Amino acid sequence: MLKDFFLNEVEKGIDKAIKAGTLGQAKEYTSGSLIIEKPKNSDFGDFAVNVSSLARSARIAPPMIANAIVEQLSKENYTVSVVGGFINFKIEDSILANIIEEILNKKENYGRGNNINKEKILLEYVSANPTGPFHIGHGRWAAMGSALANLLKFYGHDVYQEFYINDAGSQIQKLGNSLKIRIQQELGENIDFPTDEIERKNFYPGDYLIPVAKKFISEHPDIDVHTCNIQILCDYAKAEMEACQRKLLEDFRVHFDKFYSELDLHKSGKVEARYKELMDKGYLYEQEGAIWFKSTQYGDDQDRVIKKADGSNTYLTADIAYHADKFDRGFDRLIDIWGADHHGYIPRVKASLQALGYNPDRLEVLLGQLVNLVIDGNEVRMGKRKNMVTLDDLIEEVGVDATRYWMEMRNIDMTLDFDIELAKRSTDENPVFYVQYAYARVCSIIRNAINEKLNPETGEKSPAPMSKDELNNLINNFNKNLILKTTETAKPIILKLEEFKSVIELSAQNRTVYTICRYVQELAQEFHSFYNSNRVIGDDKELMYARLGLIEAIRITLKNALDILAVSAPERM
Questions:
Q1: pLDDT digits (tens, 9 = 90+) for 74-98
Q2: Model's pTM, two decimal places?
Q3: Which residues span the domain enclosing 40?
Q4: In the β-sheet with 86-91, what is the strand arrangement from edge to edge?
Q5: Which has the least CB within 10 A, 235, 241, 527, 530?
Q6: Domain-embedded: residue 255
Q7: Cβ count near 15 (within 10 Å)
């Protein structure tokens, strides 16, 4: 990557200047303390490194430091200038040609990581109760989690995606009781959910159980709902909700390798086994009838109850066993996506892992903020019980592509304002449309290069500028000297294409997806600007070939990025 290359050049130049005695009193240099950036004025160069921070140890003025370093640089394929304490680099056209050649050669592999420390990662996200449809908060975790999985895979890691089904506890009993009421209503009985707010919390009164009740009646015409085992209704409602959730995830382009049942975890004996292990190691104690975990020994702000006075387990008990089981399955790293309200939960889970002998640093938790729907200019904060708009409703309104892109384009730790009306617009103001339109326009240019033109006045066809075979040969055997024909006007977009590699690297390392959204918007902007100022298909064949090679490189890079986001790349719009 160019940034790394030039930064490395400066660091090597510093070491050489120190050895040559031209860097004042500086005796040594610690790698990694300098940063590289793009100059605000492009006339200065393409990249710049500020070496003024060395003035304290060198005890000479920043311009003298910069010039001493420049004397030691190779200046091969680039030129250098000094402005104050800045070393400015301007790359030569041969480097630009190499960038296009690399993209055309690597194609769908362009941007992938090289020689990374590959890890086997378990990524857990969404993990909703099987008691109702997904709300839009679940949609954000689904979009973010699946895109992060795509990103980490693309970078080179082995990623396994898991959905933790919260199907243990009282919520399934509440679901079965709620289905019973809906069935009775469908059978014509005069019954409804409690109106008392406290009692009502023991039910799920949403309309989504009405079609489930109708289906149950059609499949079980002879069952007396008053006398049948309530567990039958619980199991049926749970299975229907799970099937509904899985179908929506599939439609939303979200794939899980495993749906892990909390209930099965309890039945397996692993929860009690971990409880006993902590007890045997002396990490548990009894107080006021409850059993407490000594989590403060590992950095938590207070000890935590893992078994209540009535003998039932807390949520933490199962989570301890679940995360230990993840490590026991051979994963090097665990990444969880939780809601921001679970911030205080992280220390206690990490404390339990450390107590059991696992490395808590191998667990990463990404905390996600909520989603605000903007409807007719008004923000509507989404909650679990009030003003809930389902993910299904949102997708039906704006489509999968817009829903995914909008969910992904802000950092996960920021509250997201989802403007429904803007997300539906086919204008440049809508970021997903702006990017997809750039891709479609790129594809249109390539089509026009090989399609015959119809003269509207004569009705006659004029030959295409080139055949499909010629285009394929151009792309597969690109002569990088051709790109020199267009470097003067294409330099900004070629440098933006090269930047994709560093974007992927930093996004994978920082577990961010929004940075890829930002990148494709910037690349689309560079493309639209280039296209509006430069004719691609024309009489100058060498210039046309050079620009077609560039256009194909843009197409490849946009497609690779959109595939990570799981947003479609339409060839026509």
A1: 998 899 999 999 999 999 998 999 9
A2: 0.92
A3: 2-91
A4: 36-37, 47-50, 86-91, 78-83
A5: 235
A6: no
A7: 16
